[in-house]
């Protein structure tokens, strides 16, 4: 039996830069403060350690406001890493910045050869890797990514992200190997046919970007009805503040690359 898709012993995170206040956003709801993002990031790293993972914390990169969101320029698995081609021009060079770390930590490091793909569009489940098409991940990138995943022995499928939603995982997360947490708009598209689905209460859509790590589910603390729903369903919820990163369209998966390393 293969290991659960949410079992991790290692993550890579990157400290936020002061320039994070200029992070990309679809709609301007005011700049986040650096201090606020830093404190949300510190609590996240601490929660990860408490969940039992070894944290590799990379230094802040002032030239890249969104570089704290390390999930987007790469993908990591026990079998190896893939350097992606982020769909936002200001984020493209984050790949070069994370590349040396991945080459140090993984035996196999593949490069996406063409197209565009962001890690935020990729949901790893036990059976397959779901790749959501979005404004950041195009068909060419998704097809090239499938080929890279095949080299790592991973089955994959290409799915749609609802119109106007930044990333596929903006609207969903894995709760366990049989269950996803999803917004109603994404669930209605039928992509999660094989899964049990828990639907985000109306008005708390940003809570969908939660994160299962080992025994716990990290959930934004601004979303009490989602927390209550998961708690009642028996999940061990760790609420974390995401108010500041939420202003630049980020949630809990964005701030780490997670994998089970068999080097440990
Ligand atoms: C961006 O637009 O790229 C950042 N402001 C937010 C990235 C969030 N990343 C993620 O959901 N994986």
TrEMBL record:
Keywords annotated in UniProt: Hydrolase
Full protein name: Dimethylarginine dimethylaminohydrolase
Family: Belongs to the DDAH family.
Signal peptide extent: none
GO MF annotation list: amino acid binding; dimethylargininase activity
Entry keyword annotation includes Membrane: no
GO BP, sorted A to Z: arginine metabolic process; citrulline metabolic process; positive regulation of nitric oxide biosynthetic process
Annotated SUPFAM superfamilies: Pentein
InterPro entries (alphabetical): DDAH-like (IPR033199)
Taxonomic source organism: Sinorhizobium medicae
Active site: 167, 254
PANTHER family on file: DIMETHYLARGININASE (PTHR12737:SF9), DIMETHYLARGININE DIMETHYLAMINOHYDROLASE (PTHR12737)
């Amino acid at each position: 039996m293969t290991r659960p898709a949410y079992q991790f012993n290692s993550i890579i995170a990157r400290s936020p830069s002061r320039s994070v206040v200029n992070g990309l956003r679809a709609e301007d709801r005011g700049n986040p403060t650096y201090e606020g993002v830093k404190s949300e990031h510190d609590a996240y790293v601490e929660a990860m350690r408490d969940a039992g993972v070894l944290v590799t914390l990379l230094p802040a990169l002032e030239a890249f406001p969104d570089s704290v969101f390390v999930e987007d320029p790469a993908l990591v698995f026990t079998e190896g890493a893939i350097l992606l081609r982020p769909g936002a021009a200001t984020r493209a060079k984050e790949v070069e910045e994370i590349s040396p770390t991945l080459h140090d930590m993984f035996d196999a490091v593949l490069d996406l050869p063409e197209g565009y793909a962001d890690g935020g569009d990729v949901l790893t489940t036990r059976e397959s890797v779901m790749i959501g098409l979005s404004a950041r991940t195009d068909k060419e990138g998704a097809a090239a990514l499938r080929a890279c995943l095949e080299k790592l022995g991973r089955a994959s499928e290409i799915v749609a992200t609802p119109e106007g939603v930044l990333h596929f995982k903006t609207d969903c997360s894995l709760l366990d190997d049989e269950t996803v947490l999803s917004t109603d708009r994404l669930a209605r598209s039928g992509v999660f046919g094989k899964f049990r689905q828990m639907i985000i209460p109306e008005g708390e859509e940003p809570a969908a970007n939660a994160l299962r790590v080992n025994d716990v589910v990290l959930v934004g603390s601004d979303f009490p009805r989602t927390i209550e729903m998961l708690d009642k369903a028996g999940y061990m919820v760790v609420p974390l503040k995401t108010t500041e990163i939420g202003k630049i369209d980020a949630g809990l998966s964005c701030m780490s690359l997670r994998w089970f390393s068999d080097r440990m």
